[in-house]
Write a structure and sequence with these properties.
By secondary structure, the chain is α/β, with parallel strands linked by helices. The chain has 2 domains: about 5-15 and about 315-445, Aspartate Aminotransferase, domain 1; about 20-310, Type I PLP-dependent aspartate aminotransferase-like (Major domain) (Aspartate Aminotransferase, domain 2, 3-Layer(aba) Sandwich), CATH 3.40.640.10. Helices cover about 40% and strands about 15% of the residues. It has helices at about 20-30, 35-40, 50-65, 80-90, 110-115, 135-150, 190-200, 235-240, 280-285, 290-295, 300-310, 315-340, 370-380, 420-435, 440-445; strands at about 5, 75-80, 100-105, 125-130, 135, 170-175, 205-210, 215, 255-260, 275, 355, 360-365, 385, 385-390, 405-410. The strands form 4 sheets. Strands 2-10-9-7-6-3-4-5 form an 8-stranded mixed sheet, sandwiched between helices. It has a 3-stranded antiparallel sheet with strand order 12-15-14, with helices on one face. Helix 2 runs antiparallel to helix 11 (about 300-310), helix 3 packs across helix 11 (about 300-310) and helix 4 (about 80-90) packs parallel to helix 5. The longest helix has 28 residues, at about 315-340. Bound molecules: pyridoxal-5'-phosphate.
């Protein structure tokens, strides 16, 4: 009889890896210094705590190594990637003029409601990933069809025109590096194609770049500290390709924004992130009504993060603690899958990559096993909670399904129970493959609780 439940669905950092002591010291230092504590305790400027914008510019420049340094004007402080998505949809989309949002599918499921809250229900489209991430050939078709239905010149806007913003015709949402949930990474050529398409169709690419720092070599005999980004971000490509957002005929807002966050590399409770884009775009994000009324989000915790980033503590934590720890968890989970699940026909995409990263593994089950039933059985019979592929399908678009996939998270649970988790999953899979419990019986079972 299986006892302790094992949660492989929760995309949170491990509590054993939270830099609590560093944060405690930074908080005390910030609060003890009136030049930091007073601005930290008051309403922040719309764009966020200026020292952190500078510090982030230097820190991101060192990691992404763009052709030119990232300056503070390109950055607005946010309350994390989720809050930022809400703000930028409020500022840069219109419920009438903006035709749709197109997701790289499978997609980060908790983003769906943020789009629905911003009038995108019924306007959400899925474009599948191939091995290189979002399939740009399919994306072009979707964009062309969308434009055919309602040509740009015929469209009006519902919201008023505002000097600090523009309304994009389409939104493209993706996680191009170590994606949630597929863990796929888009290579450079695909990123360039995507930016070109966004420019052609007046689309805003919202790129959640929240896992970029969590990377390690697939070959564990190599040193596991990787201090430079694998690829330029979409926002970097948009900045420099063919003259960037200031090229002739462009309006200066650009077509890509990077949403960064300290949630996965420090702790989500800190609620500090950043939006990067052209200076015009970054200023626009800061003009969301909530920021103008309440000041920049997360002003006080921004002062703590400024200290941790500036003094190098966060970099050391990422490169010396998080990368090796997550690399070890990832390796343990993959090895267990190879030992116990591969022989039963389970596959992993992109398992041949040089560099791995993020929080997740995306697994494909044998054709005869439906993920939604399988997840129920894992929870009921083995007390292992896994995420079935259907929750990452784009609501309202049935063209891209993930009926035989599941997502496993390796960030949350400790390494020592991973093999146990996989053994339990194997027992359920064997039983499914042997037809020991008909699918009808599973349908009676309660739905999987939502333990994200
Ligand atoms: C792709 C992606 N974007 C955003 C978030 C949430 O980020 P934040 O905590 O900064 O709001 C997550 C968390 O799971 C995520 O996976």
């Amino acid at each position: 009889m299986v006892s302790e439940p094992i949660n492989l669905i929760r995309g949170w950092p491990s509590t054993s890896l939270l830099p609590t002591q560093h944060l405690s010291r930074a908080a005390q230092a910030a609060l003890a210094d009136p030049t930091v504590a007073f601005p930290g305790m008051l309403y922040g400027p719309d764009e966020g705590y200026a020292p952190l914008r500078d510090t982030l510019g230097d820190w991101l420049t060192a990691f992404y190594q763009p052709e030119q340094p990232i300056v503070r004007e390109r950055i607005t402080i946010t309350g994390g990637a989720s809050q930022n998505l809400g703000c930028l949809l409020q500022v840069f989309t219109d419920p009438v003029y903006t035709k749709d949002v197109i997701f790289a599918a499978p997609a980060y499921m908790l983003a769906f409601r943020i789009f629905e809250d911003n009038a995108f229900s019924g306007k959400m489209r899925a474009v599948p990933e191939d091995d290189d991430g979002l399939d740009t050939v399919r994306l072009r078709k979707v964009l062309e069809e969308s434009e055919k239905c309602c040509p740009r010149h015929e469209a009006t806007t519902y919201k008023p025109s505002r000097p600090y913003a523009k309304y994009y015709r389409h939104v493209i949402y993706c996680v191009p590096t170590f994606s949630n949930p597929s863990s796929r990474t888009m290579p450079l050529h695909r990123r360039i194609e995507l930016v070109k398409l966004a420019r052609e169709f007046d689309a805003l690419i919202v790129s959640d770049d929240v896992y970029d720092f969590l990377q390690w070599p697939a070959d564990s005999s190599k040193p596991s500290s990787l201090t430079k980004a694998l690829f330029p971000r979409l926002v970097d490509i948009d900045r420099f390709l063919d003259g960037g957002s200031d090229r002739a005929g462009a309006d200066g807002f650009g077509n890509a924004t990077s949403s960064g966050s300290f949630s996965k590399i420090c702790g989500p409770g800190i609620r500090v992130g950043w939006a990067e884009g052209s200076a015009k775009f970054a200023h626009g994000v800061s003009q969301a009504g909530t920021s103008c009324s309440g000041g920049a989000p997360s002003q006080l915790t921004s002062t703590y993060m400024d200290i941790l980033v500036k003094e190098g503590t966060l970099s050391r934590h990422i490169f010396e603690t998080l990368q090796p720890a997550y690399a070890a968890r990832h390796k343990t989970l993959v090895s267990a899958i190879e030992d116990y699940l591969w022989p039963l026909g389970v596959t992993l995409p992109q398992s041949n990559r040089r560099v791995m990263g993020g929080y997740f593994l995306w697994m494909t089950l044998p054709d005869t096993v439906k993920a939604v039933d399988f997840a129920k059985r894992c929870q009921e019979e083995a007390q292992v909670i896994v995420a079935p592929g259907n929750i990452f399908e784009v609501p309202g678009d049935n063209s891209v399904k993930f009926e035989h996939s599941i997502r496993l998270t390796f960030s949350w649970i400790d390494e020592d129970i991973m093999v146990e988790a996989v053994k339990r999953i194997r027992a359920v899979l064997e039983s499914c493959l042997n037809g020991e419990r008909p699918v009808e019986a599973c349908k009676q079972a309660e739905t999987v609780q939502n333990p994200y």
